[in-house]
Amino acid sequence: MSPPLSYRQHFAAVVALGLPLVGSHVAQFLLTLTDTILIGWYDVEALAAGNLAGGVFFVFLIFGAGFGWAVMPLVATAHAKGDATEVRRATRMGLWLSALFSVACLPVFLFARPIFLWLGQTEVVATLAQDYLRIAGFAIMPGLFVMVMKSYLAALGRANAVLWITLIAVPVNFAANWLLIFGNWGFPELGIRGAAIATVATSLLSAILTALYAVRTMPEHQLFVRLWRPDWEAFRTVFRLGLPIGLTALAEVGLFTASSVMMGWLGTLPLAAHGAALQISSMTFMVHLGLSNVATIRAGQALGHGNRTDLVRGSVTVLFCSGVAVAGTVALFLLAPEPLIGIFTDPDDPNRGAVIAIGAGLLAAAALFQLVDAAQVIGIGLLRGLQDTRVPMIVAAFSYWGVGLATAYVLGFVLGWGGVGIWLGLAAGLGVASVALMARFWTVGLARIQSPA
Predict the structure, then answer these.
(1) Range of the domain at 192
(2) pLDDT-derived band of residue 411, with 50, 70 and 90 as boundaries?
(3) Rounded distance, CA 229 to CA 247, Å?
(4) What are phi and psi of 111, to 5 degrees?
């Protein structure tokens, strides 16, 4: 067994992995932001339908991404053991599960209009949302394919490739939206359907680039040779890890979706301020999400090497990096909330001052939960690296919904604290999750590696 790395070596490894992974998450976030902005410039009803349909698509995508994220710890552990066969088996079955899940989702995308009408949407919005999903729904298979391949590449230390492929997709997505939504340069003006086509085109391009990169740089893995052959043992392993991961992500997405619904009960201006503050906090969260991926990879490698000392040192290093990012974010949210919220408001809007004032209060509340939000996602990443996903799913679901949502309602409406109360409720749920997940890692998680070396 190789000797454990020093903290300096762990820090260098975390930075080398973390910077491109954080950058890729930020770039991925920009893809969604670009769609929202350009559709909003085109038409208000199209924006409403796009947000509605995009939300539905994202829910299915984040659920199905669990199978892709399950590939990351499996590949990291197998690679640490020098087992190229296990690397190939886990990645292939991740692709299988993603494909099967994508096919299962298509009926919902193709016949979404009755569902939207049942949920109380207007005829126009429901029709436009279905128009979008009937095209964009076909992006879920290449999108999940990319999730699997990015996990595979990152676990093998190829995080730079993940970043560059995502960065290539950003201008391509913008250009396709600009051409097809508005009908620029002689292209047909397709409105929301143009945005859907752009989504499919960008997803396909990303999938092709990741596949080509994998084949050209790591031909020894032979990922796509006899891909049609099932491997039921690896299939069950990826499914066993991936389903809880997908459900955990779904629980967190659902919590923030529910918070948006509750903010809507307070009125249009609080909801607008909530949307702006949520976009800002989501952007900063990308830093911790990238570091969570690093935690998964480093923990998976320590598991493969059977080295508990590396697991402890690597975990402390990731937590330190996340803490530094938290300090910067808290300072930003507390010292400059007005300029941040102002980015999302029209300077000529008569309600701009009220939205900024409400948003500044929400960012102050967000500053309070930055630490626990970072800690809980890092905890999930560490446990995921040790292939511990079922209990964290239960902990997260209880914390987010049993504590977070209930507390948000009590503080926001029973005690009358409004939007700030709702956000403090979110902080309470995330706080319980962070304590419970970290406690599990430092007790049960460490015990999974017997050797202290």
Answers:
(1) 10-230
(2) very high
(3) 28
(4) -130, 50
